[in-house]
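Whether sequence alone determines local backbone shape is best considered at the level of individual chains. In the encoding step, the backbone of a single protein was reduced to a row of integers, each denoting a local shape. For completeness, the protein is quoted in full, as a sequence line and a line of structure tokens.
***
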Amino acid sequence: MQIYLPIAEVSVNAFLLLGLGGIIGILSGMFGVGGGFLMTPLLFFIGIPPAVAVATGAVQIVASSFSGVLAHLRRKTVDLKMGTVLLVGGLIGAAVGIVLFNYLKFLGQVDLLVNLCYVVFLGIIGGLMFIESWRAIRRSKVPGSRPPRRKHGLVHALPLKMKFRVSGLYISVIPPLIIGLTVGILAAIMGVGGGFVMLPAMIYLLGMPTKVVIGTSLFQIIFVTAFTTMLHATTNFTVDIVLAVLLSIGGVIGAQVGTRIGVKMKAENLRILLAMMVLAVCGKLAFDLLVMPSELYSLGTGGDH
């Protein structure tokens, strides 16, 4: 069933969009990521203009993350205090990111920037997560082995310390603020929730337990992506409501399924699956950047006439 998207100005199969939303919702519930790192490139692939994909993808992330966080709140695996600190940084970062996005859109460089950001961030983070998760799985197969103790590094030496009871931490608020700021900028430029950056940072930099990280990440993602969507809608007018509704319906249903699956899996297995998915998307985008420049070439030749 084809449906016309008024802002994107293309016709797309409605069931395809519901299915995409559902898949991203499952990932959201399982891993605590908004799923934008996968959704935005998928929207590119089915012909949605990049500016519309970035802005509208954020709406779907809000819906699936909200559905997922409700499930985690019932299990008491959300650190609301840590989530609020991350959120403050995230809102500031989103505002900065929108200014940068609008400037690059004016210069005509948004598409290239979005793709390059994906390749760089997904490649680095996916690689690091895969290596660490693989080591954790190997350790778990050795009888009597214990995970290495976390060292008290720079994070624990910084001032402005605060107790985070749910996470069992007593650390400075500066690192969570910086993580939130980074994620906010990425949310605005790349149309992502930023969970693929936030999860590794919360686990490896802040030392939060994995079971708390997922729900807390979703809590922060809801508000940052909602704020980002509002800014895109009022400054760029690139939010397609029809597209957003179809993606959101699929996302809300998928998130509930994903949360149930995630609870039954081991933390290290969840992390390695997420790492493999991140690397797969990175590889596809890098391949497209290097091997498929035909559109740029045709635009260049068109300018000579």
